[in-house]
Amino acid sequence: MLTKQDLKQIADKGISEEKLNSQLEEFKTGFPFLKLEAAASVERGIIATTPEQVKQYEDAWENYKAQGRTIVKFVPASGAASRMFKDMFAFVDADYDIPTTDFEKKYFDNIGNFAFHDALDEVCRKNTGMGIEELIANGRYKEVAANMLNPEGLNYGQLPKGMLLFHKYTEGPRTPMEEHLVEGALYAASEGKAAVHFTVSHDHLPLFKQRVADKLDFYANKYGITYDISFSEQKPSTDTVAANTDNTPFRNSDGSLLFRPGGHGALIENLNEIDADVIFIKNIDNVVPDRLKADTVTYKQVIAGILVSLQKRAFEYLEVLDSGAYNHDKLEEIIRFVQHELCCRKSDIKEFEDADLVLYLRKKLNRPMRVCGVVKNVGEPGGGPFLTYNQDGTVSLQILESSQIDKNNKEYMEMFTKGTHFNPVDLVCAVKDYKGQPFNLPDFVDRTTGFISSKSKNGKELKALELPGLWNGAMSDWNTIFVEVPLSTFNPVKTVNDLLREQHQ
């Protein structure tokens, strides 16, 4: 089945023949749906903090930072922003010249409110001899949109989201990447240093590096800190092979195998290479201007404070278990911690002898831990917090995407639609064990949680394989805690007009 050329191609990518065959096998077998117990809620698995607790956890985080810990803010930023401009691409190609849809009208009626207005005005003048307002007055709307989208203009149709101008300030507009630098200074700095890591696509790396070089001193002076900025790219070894509809490998016109990026789950490899005690993860487009940052900063500190408080207790219990200095009452106390605080339950735990119990508890305590901020469900797409059954028969908290749920199971769909909260990718992670050694994160991935989607290339149908998502299956075997955070901390930008929302003005 595989030619010499194929074997060379996969070796160049760092993919083994075994891995390729197992991916082709996954197309045939598909992936099982997850077995659910219930949607998580404030009564079951989601912590809602009181004002006193907010203060307590902020202090816990401050104390932790004061111990000279390594903290990194990790921002997945590789996606192109093309989806943001889908409606504007459609307008440029439409057979009419005047804004017709509600979306188009809103964009042009409010064009002066975009942070990129002045930059767009400048490229319009350069390319057409007229500014935005003059072009609009002459009915030349399409030229305005084309100058925003195309390479000879701002090239926003091709740029990554992190490089677009999102917010206005007196000192000039800011990109999301800069907003993340500011956030890094406000809640993730330790001993006067903030470390921020961006995962970017290869093509966009020079752009990011240039922007950082231009802006870093400004933010370092503004916040009185030094920055440590690093980048990584998605590894070619995490690409997945595409298949035809009959599950044979899909080939390009030159006979080579078609590989596609494995989705955000590939980033577990990038995360694994970061040397840190605590890592914050947040999407590139979920940022707000400074006037609205207070809630974000508070609750980032709260979820980090909860993380280090729970980790401290887990470490103390691991020391007890490893020293052998425990009695049955102590084991009962550790069971309560695993069941109630870490929300990991096993129905037949009562039947365990003490020796088996120790092994079980040790395994559940000695693994990476994450605290996820969840917001009340307002109908935005995203993963929901659930109690699900794991491969070993335990029930624990997981973030699920709709693709992991059996749509034909009425009970499960009801859980999914009635879920009270969802996760906007707001995570803080602890990735070292109690002896200070880093966990090997790929060991904690549930490989059965990938999914298959239908795509096409050059008019031919194909099947694409997505790896277990970064905050879904890739972190399946972590200790997971959910904490309710205010909706004001969640302000994603999915379309260009979202930038007109009050939260981005």
What would you say this structure looks like, in words?
It is built from 15 helices and 16 strands. By secondary structure, the protein is of the alpha/beta class. Helix content is 36%, strand content 16%. Helix 13 runs parallel beside helix 14. Strands 2, 3, 4, 5, 8, 9, 12, 13 and 16 form a 9-stranded mixed beta sheet that branches. It has a 3-stranded antiparallel beta sheet with strand order 1-10-11, covered by helices on one side. A two-stranded antiparallel sheet has the order 6-7. It has 2 domains: 414 residues, Spore Coat Polysaccharide Biosynthesis Protein SpsA, Chain A; 71 residues, no CATH class.
Mean pLDDT, all residues: 92
Number of helices: 15
User: How many strands in all?
Assistant: 16
Query: Which architecture name of the largest domain does CATH use?
Result: Alpha-Beta Complex
Counting structural domains, the number is: 2
What topology does this entry show?
Layout: H1 4-13, H2 17-29, E1 36-39, E2 46-47, H3 51-65, E3 71-76, H4 86-93, H5 102-109, H6 117-128, H7 132-137, H8 141-149, H9 176-187, E4 193-199, H10 205-223, E5 226-232, E6 240-241, E7 259-260, H11 267-272, E8 278-282, H12 293-323, H13 328-341, H14 354-365, E9 369-376, E10 384-389, E11 395-400, H15 410-418, E12 421-422, E13 426-430, E14 451-457, E15 460-466, E16 479-484
Parallel strand pairs: 2-16, 3-4, 3-8, 4-5, 9-16
Antiparallel strand pairs: 1-10, 6-7, 8-13, 9-12, 9-13, 10-11, 14-15
Helix pairs in contact: 3-12, 4-8, 6-8, 9-10, 13-14
